[in-house]
Amino acid sequence: MRPELEEVQLLEAYLQGSLSEEQQLEVSVRLLWDQDWQQKLAAQKRAYQALRLAGRQQLRHELDFIYVRLFG
Q1: What is residue 45's predicted lDDT score, i.e. its pLDDT?
Q2: This protein's superkingdom (predicted)?
Q3: Can you tell me the distance from the alpha carbon of 41 to that of 47, in angstroms, rounded to the nearest whole number?
Q4: Cβ neighbours of residue 38 closer than 8 Å, sequence gap 6 or more
Q5: What is the average pLDDT across 59-63?
Q6: What DSSP string runs through the chain?
Q7: Which residue from 5, 19, 23, 28 has the highest number of Cβ atoms inside 10 Å of its Cβ?
Q8: CA separation for the pair 13, 31 (Å, rounded)
Q9: CB–CB of 19/27 below 8 Å?
Q10: What are the pLDDT digits (tens) for 1-58?
Q11: Nearest-5° angle of CA 7, CA 13, CA 18?
């Protein structure tokens, strides 16, 4: 697997809290010292926030559509 993809997967697992204690500690320490990783983590958090927002907007649109169909 490509190292970039491995980093993304590791940061994703870190955000989800699904790493072992040892891995969690290793990532935390690396984040303290590596500004590139800090930026990657921040970008990944923003991507997740954007996806959640898009999902909420889609759901709101679908609910509005259902409301209009039911109650005209």
Answers
A1: 94
A2: Bacteria
A3: 10
A4: 31
A5: 91
A6: --HHHHHHHHHHHHHHT-S-HHHHHHHHHHHHH-HHHHHHHHHHHHHHHHHHHHHHHHHHHHHHHHHHHHH-
A7: 19
A8: 14
A9: yes
A10: 788 889 889 999 999 999 999 999 999 999 999 999 999 999 999 999 999 999 999 9
A11: 150
- Which structure tokens are listed for 9? 């997967």
pTM score: 0.76
**Six-digit token pair at 20?**
């072992």
Structure tokens at 44: 């990944």
Q: Residue 54 corresponds to which tokens in the numbers above?
A: 């898009």
Place of tokens 């997740």: 48
Q: Count the residues in the chain.
A: 72
22, two tokens: 């040892």
